[in-house]
């Protein structure tokens, strides 16, 4: 293959990544756990870009790293498929739809009470079906025996009963120890390789840049309003463990407490973010737009996602070799089971508890699940049917 053919092939791959991630960015309602369900359906089941275990390992790794886990999984999949540019276009495709919606319609949506709109409730029921379908597949693959099923149930119980930002990390650490003790002699030699087409030097550079910015930005912030703004969003994105919702108090402390936006603007933006698909971290675009228009939205979006991007690119080139070691494989058995439990807990709260209120809600969610799991209908169609169903329920 000559250089022109190679460039054309790479452009084709990048275009494919962008189009698929954009489709996900337009249809992935329901929060980070639902996003992982959409990703699983698209990347694992439909396109076979990676196997079940590799995807589960991706999810488990991103649970360790600070930042938005679903966006990090998407970035990692783009990185494995198309290198650094693949990671960038994967992030752009998944993030841009909600950023544009939040920036373009901020003033309009602030005047409308969307929290109780029928179509919003329907989209919550879509999330129930999507996450249930993803969990169903993961339970079969990742908790096939009594020990791993027990780890998953205990993990779910602990996460539900002790809802703190650090509890997921603690659960995963303990599960890794239990998995190592139970399965350290059980090795797998046939798993699919996760190909990461960047060098370890580039990875090390990204990790160094992550820490360098974390240290230097607070020092440089007095010299420029833009640097101060970038630092606030970058620091918020660097310190989030346990899901996107944890970033809310950090952003409130940075921008409401310091008088950059009002409490009412903050809450209106949060409600608006819940109404659009894509990652919750795009809430930063709304805050940036209120502060400094389109330029502010751009700076805020880049700054809050940059730590997650640098960490994924910095860690993944070392990850595939590490996960093949026997003692790591045993630990991953425990971690993957714990991830199933964590997703199960998130499926119950907040997804189930905020969506299935009446018997009619359960009926709609069950029908959507049947369409997805047994009729194999595309998630985009499920989203449309769910939104329409929600509007119908709202007038009954």
Descriptive labels:
396 residues, mainly alpha
SSE inventory with pairings:
Elements (H helix, E strand, L loop, with lengths): L2 H25 L4 H15 L5 H13 L4 H36 L1 H4 L8 H25 L3 H16 L5 H17 L16 H21 L4 H14 L8 H10 L6 H13 L7 H41 L2 H27 L6 H15 L5 H17 L1
Helix pairs in contact: 1-4, 2-4, 2-6, 3-4, 3-14, 4-13, 6-14, 6-15, 6-16, 7-8, 7-14, 8-14, 9-10, 9-13, 10-11, 10-13, 15-16
What does it look like?
- This protein is mainly α.
- It has one domain.
- The chain is 78% helix and 0% strand.
- α2 crosses α4 and α2 crosses α6.
- It starts with a helix and ends with a helix.
- The relative contact order is 0.17.
Largest sheet: none
How many domains would you count in the coordinates?
Answer: 1
Please compute the radius of gyration using only Cα atoms: 21 Å
Strand content: under 5%
| N-C termini distance | 62 Å
Secondary-structure-derived class = mainly alpha
The averaged pLDDT comes out at: 85
InterPro entries: Chr_Tranpt_l_chain, Chromate_transpt
Keywords: Cell membrane, Membrane, Transmembrane, Transmembrane helix
Transmembrane segments: 84-109, 121-139, 151-182, 202-220, 232-251, 272-291, 297-319, 331-351, 363-393
Membrane topology: Multi-pass membrane protein
């Amino acid at each position: 293959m000559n250089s022109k053919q190679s460039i054309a092939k790479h452009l084709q791959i990048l275009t494919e990544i962008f189009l698929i991630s954009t489709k996900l960015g337009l249809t992935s309602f329901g929060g980070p756990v639902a996003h992982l369900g959409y990703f699983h359906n698209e990347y694992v089941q439909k396109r076979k870009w990676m196997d079940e275990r590799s995807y589960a390992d991706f999810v488990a790794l991103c649970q360790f790293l600070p930042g938005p886990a679903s966006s990090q999984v998407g970035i990692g999949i783009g990185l494995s498929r198309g290198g650094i540019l693949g990671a960038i276009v994967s992030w752009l495709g998944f993030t841009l739809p909600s950023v544009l919606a939040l920036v373009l319609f901020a003033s309009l949506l602030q005047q409308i009470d969307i929290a109780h709109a029928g179509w919003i409730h329907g989209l919550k029921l879509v999330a129930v079906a999507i996450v249930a379908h993803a969990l169903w597949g993961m339970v079969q693959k990742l908790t096939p025996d009594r020990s791993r099923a027990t780890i998953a149930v205990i993990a779910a119980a602990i996460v539900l009963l002790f809802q703190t930002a650090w509890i997921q990390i603690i659960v995963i650490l303990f599960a890794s120890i239990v998995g190592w003790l139970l399965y350290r002699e059980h090795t797998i030699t046939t798993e699919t390789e996760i190909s990461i087409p960047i060098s370890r030097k580039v990875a090390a550079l990204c990790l160094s840049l992550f820490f360098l910015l974390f240290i230097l930005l607070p020092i440089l912030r007095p010299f420029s309003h833009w640097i101060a703004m970038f630092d606030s969003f970058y620091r918020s994105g660097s310190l989030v463990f346990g899901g996107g919702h944890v970033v809310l108090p950090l952003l409130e402390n940075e921008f409401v407490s310091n008088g950059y936006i009002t409490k009412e603007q903050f809450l209106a933006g949060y409600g608006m973010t819940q109404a659009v698909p894509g990652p919750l971290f795009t809430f930063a675009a709304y805050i940036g737009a209120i502060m400094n228009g389109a330029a502010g939205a751009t700076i805020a979006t880049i700054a809050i996602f940059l730590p997650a991007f640098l960490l994924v690119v910095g860690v993944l080139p070392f990850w595939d070799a590490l996960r093949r070691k026997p003692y790591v494989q045993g630990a991953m058995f425990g971690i993957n089971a714990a991830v199933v439990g964590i997703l199960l807990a998130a499926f119950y709260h907040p997804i189930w508890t905020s969506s299935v209120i009446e018997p009619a809600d359960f009926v709609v969610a069950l029908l959507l699940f049947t369409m997805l799991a047994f009729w194999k209908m595309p998630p985009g169609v499920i989203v449309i049917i769910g939104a329409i169903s929600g509007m119908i329920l709202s007038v009954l």
